[in-house]
Amino acid sequence: MKSKKSENHQGEDHFVVVRDITMDSHPAYTGEKRFVDTAGRVEKFQSKFSRKK
Question: Is 5's pLDDT higher than 80?
């Protein structure tokens, strides 16, 4: 593949081709977007592993 952009790496010029991650280019990519709940993670951990009095 060739592109307009190239970079020199260890004395050799290489073309830079920017690609998005797709199901075809990455075996673990499913195309599904997941929402990660970041709020309340500490509270959830503390309630699960807190010591009972």
Answer: yes
